Amino acid sequence: MIQKYVFGSPIETDAVVEDIPVSGEKLPFFELTGDNGFLYQLAEKDIVYGLGEQVRGINKRGWKYVSCNSDNPHHQEDTVSLYGAHNFLLISGEELFGVFFDYPGSMSFDIGFTRRDTMKVLTSDFNLYVYIITGENEKEIVKQFRRIIGQSYIAPKWAFGYGQSRWGYKSADEIRTVAEEYRKRNIPIDSIYLDIDYMEHYKDFTVNEETFPEIEKFCAEMKAMGIHLVPIIDAGVKIEKGYSVYEEGVRNNYFCKDENGNDFTGAVWPGRVHFPDFLDPEVRKWFGEKYSILLEKGFDGFWNDMNEPAIFYSEKRLASVMERINELSKENMGTDGFFEFTGLVNGISNNTGDYDCFFHKVDGKMLPHSKVHNLYGYNMTKAAGEAFKKLSPEKRILMFSRSSYIGAHRYGGIWQGDNKSWWSHLLMNLQMMPSLNMTGFLYTGADTGGFGSDTTEDLMLRWLQLSVFLPLFRNHSAQGTRPQELYRFENCEDCKRMIEIRYGLIPYLYSEYRKAILRDEMMYRPLAFDFREDEDARSVEDQLLLGNELMIAPVYKQNATGRYVYLPEEMMLVRMRSPEDFETETVEPGHHYIRAELNELVFFIRKDKAIPFGTAAPDTARLDTSSLRFIGYPEAGYELCEEEGTSVLHMFEEHK
Amino acid sequence: MIQKYVFGSPIETDAVVEDIPVSGEKLPFFELTGDNGFLYQLAEKDIVYGLGEQVRGINKRGWKYVSCNSDNPHHQEDTVSLYGAHNFLLISGEELFGVFFDYPGSMSFDIGFTRRDTMKVLTSDFNLYVYIITGENEKEIVKQFRRIIGQSYIAPKWAFGYGQSRWGYKSADEIRTVAEEYRKRNIPIDSIYLDIDYMEHYKDFTVNEETFPEIEKFCAEMKAMGIHLVPIIDAGVKIEKGYSVYEEGVRNNYFCKDENGNDFTGAVWPGRVHFPDFLDPEVRKWFGEKYSILLEKGFDGFWNDMNEPAIFYSEKRLASVMERINELSKENMGTDGFFEFTGLVNGISNNTGDYDCFFHKVDGKMLPHSKVHNLYGYNMTKAAGEAFKKLSPEKRILMFSRSSYIGAHRYGGIWQGDNKSWWSHLLMNLQMMPSLNMTGFLYTGADTGGFGSDTTEDLMLRWLQLSVFLPLFRNHSAQGTRPQELYRFENCEDCKRMIEIRYGLIPYLYSEYRKAILRDEMMYRPLAFDFREDEDARSVEDQLLLGNELMIAPVYKQNATGRYVYLPEEMMLVRMRSPEDFETETVEPGHHYIRAELNELVFFIRKDKAIPFGTAAPDTARLDTSSLRFIGYPEAGYELCEEEGTSVLHMFEEHK
Questions:
Q1: What pLDDT score was predicted for residue B656?
Q2: Alpha-carbon torsion B478, B482, B485, B491, what sign?
Q3: Which of A509, A611, B364, B473 has the greatest number of beta carbons closer than 10 A?
Q4: Residues B86-132 pLDDT 10s
């Protein structure tokens, strides 16, 4: 059952697409705190799931979180905000319910941080919708929630192929080399991503003709090799006379305004920019249609970036900081002065104070950005998604975004933002999957191998062993870090075999992905969602159920020879070194230490289940789906859900 | 066997105190790389132990490390330097040997980072001693190494009591309140630490008479309550006319010099300071004797801080940065200019470039700080340690330092530096214990509950469950973070019981601590040191053997209901909620999931062993050691090693 409550005068976010009458009853479960907040008493064993893209574990208890979309590539254990705002929680324990706080401004969640037994949710003002969802079990609650927020975006099948990316590919020639290196070694690959360097001075919808000459031809050349090029699109529009996007935006008042009604100026990669007011449908239409410039050149996928929006500096703040520094430097700066100085400088970028200094037009009224901050990236992606329906009705276009809010899931996927080459971020990648699935983000994954910081050969290989199971499977890294294309490593052969296994898994993965979307289900679930009464299953933080057939349990610790795995029921362990080289073994329910050499992918098939498994292919277009094998329990069948329809397969050969 | 090799003209560090003739043979195991480095081929299963205070796991494989003492309170997975430099490695696998690179400048260790099969050790110049130690097993190699570096400092027994600290106790009254809050609740406590605020304008060896009036009386008042006050001593000496330490230092040329022979000026907490040249024995004597000012007031313990040395800014660098900022701000700063600006500002503090701009007098020659950087904190602690022998020959004085080098272990302990209230730092605390023990640092521990960032109730309680077993047991936190005195938490009672258990453990812990020192042994060991042939034991990264009787395996994950533990042999599990409330149970060898409620301390007694266990006491002085109980296997005896001598105890009552 879903009950809708209204407090104050909420801003419409369009997160919920179903028309639900406002409940006349008292808000259940929560107590109003009187300071724009909601209080819930947590029982000792309650688990709090949710919050979508956030730090820490599957169980969110014991920390404080702030929904305030942030560009924080250095996030760690005590971070409170990431790139998305997904205000959905699912409380499971003494009571069982889901709750969605539909509120586009900054809000905080103290989930047993201040007091272990208390959850307190605070909004900046008390204008919001609250949806309470009750049901028989966790899966049923999520299903109801997913239904009211609308069907998730479906990515094209090729987006399930492996993708290579790096911030730092400076030219078509560099990209060509990457493509050739992959093809030369027969490492399957479907896409190469273009980070900001493909643009002319970081101007949206331009291509640098010197470094990326004849881009149509280059797209075609890559496509002939089976490779899709996926360019980045940034939120900010460069201020440059003669640049059509800038000039049109100014002329039509498409940019966010400052206090005085002038176009607000911040600085990002292109230098000084204006920010399109994506909350205005007319602006979305205008900006969305711009993607056609690149679609026509042969691109068929995009990633939207810097759309929290990230702001290196606002002109106004920079000027005031500079003024104060000038004063301080005259004063014979003491320790206090020094810390004021460094504090000011480190407070320039992404300062939330700036969010009160620029404005959006919403229903004819000017609203400060702070009131709608978390909707910005969402509406940029919506701009693209709405346009694609018109521009390319027949063909699925790949679209994923960095920043998001619930609702954005209808228009694209997200990647989990700029992460680090840290073992802890490999685990976090896994832990975010269920909470993202709850809120409709099905096409997702993290930068495999880690974006910032230097990766290592073993971290990359272990990360691949998680990412082979995730929809968005992209190896991405930052300028200045160790290059991490797979052929850079001594163990390239082992990496290659993992990618081959991925291609073998694609028929299954894409089928489960489609099912999850079409049925409003979670593709990735905590063990406790299927084994509700199992106390041990409830505390597992490093394994996931995938679809209805698999349990994944990657190794995420350096130098580990294996890992502990909990089996709530008998399962079949698969130990795979390549699509052709694997063994299976039945494992009893309970706790086990499972050995896994660095080059071994270990996963589990659930009792009486089986998965279809293909063979390696250079790319998804060349996948041979006519000769799927089965891996799993001999008597099991599998319902294959393809673009063309659903068919039930039965095991036609004994597994090895 | 120990072999000593000499390359170039090494600077004497006095890390090694035994006279060892230089070997005429070729350096074994390593290949010289020709670029001031050493190369070792790692076999697939080799484990590399060592490096003392460093990030990452017990097994150091798969990362790069730099020995360059650094003030980095934000250290994380990809950090390369911490507060100490402990260039000892122990390679265990195809070959077995220890190696000590006795080199006081910055040096790096690529331990299977660039290539998994290669370890490369690089020095800045090739002037160093290398010691190769071979032996029958890991413990024997460590024992030999510990013998040549000299006996470790022995802390007084009261230093095994619980200590409360916070950067931010502004007055004697605040300290008094802390003491009263602990005593009121009968939470045992032996010490309260004074961070920088007790000083007058952060001047070493001064006490602020306004906020800490009549300090002798206050020391006596606290001592009457059973509480030792432990003040901090910083490395930098405030530049202030009339301040005697400053004036004496200037008069006698006791400070480090700049290029022009003037006293080098940096800024730290007091503002502008000079740095005593601790490498000069005359300066050590002078500075060491200053501790008597505080000893005479009634203090009997100290912690040396900021002695990497931490430098907020050098005058010269700050001036040049300011000049460049001034230029940039005139230029209509673009994105590049902005990043240059923020990069410059963030590069001011602890810039290693400054280490070439100040100088030490070593054997009559002026050496740039960079050549001897890692000896600075060591020699500050040596100054204190040498002085204490003269000033207080009869009484053990507590001394521990932030920065260190091997050799400093003879004069004091170390704490593991400014850490964070992170679960990952709880694990790192455990993982550093064996590597620090290898290099002689026996009196050590980390800031329990975490220094920076906000702690949580459960993190604190779980961290206590590790720290009850560690010599240095201090709860310390930073200004601006959530207060973390135990009485701040709802679960104060549970915390209190952990501290009570600590006091019950002290007879055992202090005995094992003394044994480890007197016998050159490790008090904390990886499982593989005692179970060499056990493949499973070799990969355990989150359990330690403690002394000869215990195995500890704390829970270090939030919301965990227990943890996995590997038992290489049968052991007795002890599940303890208070010194009086516990059960034991025999557990078979193998892998187990062990439940542990938040208020339960779980540890293991090794087969056929037992430990003496006392009762709670308000402080160590009031410990009743006359009625020790035994916990463990019924037939076991225990050799108790006390200050007064060693006695063998036998179980005189059955354990519950």
A1: 32
A2: negative
A3: A611
A4: 999 999 999 999 999 999 999 999 999 999 999 999 999 999 999 99
In whole angstroms, what is the distance from residue B547 CA to residue B506 CA? 13
Nearest-neighbour CA in chain B from A300: distance (Å): 30
Residues of chain A in contact with residue B313, where contact means CB-CB under 8 angstroms, are: 338
Classify residue B77 as exposed, middle or buried by CB count within 10 Å of its CB (0-12, 13-18, 19+).
Answer: buried
As a whole number of angstroms, the distance between CA A470 and CA A205 comes to: 29
Q: Do A342 and B345 touch (CB under 8 A)?
A: yes
Arithmetic mean of pLDDT, B563-590: 98
Q: What are phi and psi of A387, to 5 degrees?
A: -65, -40
Structure tokens at B193: 């630490």
Q: Which two tokens stand for residue B26?
A: 């070729």
Segment 563-622 of chain A within 8 Å of chain B by CB: 564, 566, 591-593
Nearest to A559 among B61, B338, B491 (CB): B61
Do the Cβ atoms of A204 and A245 come closer than 8 Å?
A: yes
* Whether residue A563 has pLDDT greater than 60: yes
Q: What's the maximum distance between 2 C-alpha atoms anywhere in chain A?
A: 82
How far apart CA A423 and CA A455 sit, in angstroms, is: 10
Q: Which of residues 383-402 of B touch A (CB under 8 A)?
A: none
**Which residues are within 8 A (CB) of A4 and not within 5 positions of it... i.e. 6 or more apart?**
A20, A21, A22, A23, A129, A130, A131
Contacts of B456 in chain A (CB under 8 A): 62-63, 113, 116
Which of A147-156, A445-454, A561-570, B637-646 is predicted least confidently? Answer: B637-646
* CB A302 within 8 Å of CB A397: yes
Query: CA-to-CA distance for A3 and A16, rounded, in angstroms?
Result: 13
Q: HEC profile for B174-211?
A: HHHHHHHHHHHCCCCCCEEEECHHHCCCCCCCCCCCCC
At B340, the amino acid letter reads E
Whether B541 contacts A557, CB under 8 Å? yes
Say yes or no for a CB contact (<8 Å) between A558 and B270. Answer: no
Give CA–CA dist B96/B138, Å, rounded: 8
ipTM summary value: 0.96
Interface test with B, best of A55, A60, A111, A116 (most B CBs within 10 A): A116
Structure tokens at A134: 């009750």
> Would you mind telling me the total number of residues written for chain A in this entry?
656
CA torsion sign, B9 to B11 to B12 to B18?
A: negative
- State pTM to two decimals: 0.97
| pLDDT-derived band at B496, boundaries 50, 70, 90 | very high
Which residues of chain A make contact with B59, given a CB cutoff of 8 A? 558-559
User: Could A78 and B341 be called an inter-chain contact, meaning their C-beta atoms sit closer than 8 Å?
Assistant: no
Question: What phi, psi does A271 have (nearest 5°)?
Answer: 90, -135
The pLDDT, as a whole number, for residue B537 is 98
Number of Cβ within a 10 Å radius of residue B618: 19
Distance CA B289, CA B292 (A): 6
pLDDT above 70 (res B147)? yes
Scan residues 190-249 of A and list those with Cβ closer than 8 Å to B.
none
CA dist., res. B521 & res. A584, Å (int):
46
Q: Is the Cβ–Cβ distance between A204 and A290 less than 8 Å?
A: yes
For chains A and B, CB pairs below 8 A equal 158
Are B335 and A454 a contacting pair at CB < 8 A? no
Contact call for A564 and B593, based on CB within 8 A? yes
**What band does A334 get if pLDDT is binned at 50, 70 and 90?**
confident
Min Cα separation B491/chain A (Å): 9
Contacts of B334 in chain A (CB under 8 A): 267, 271
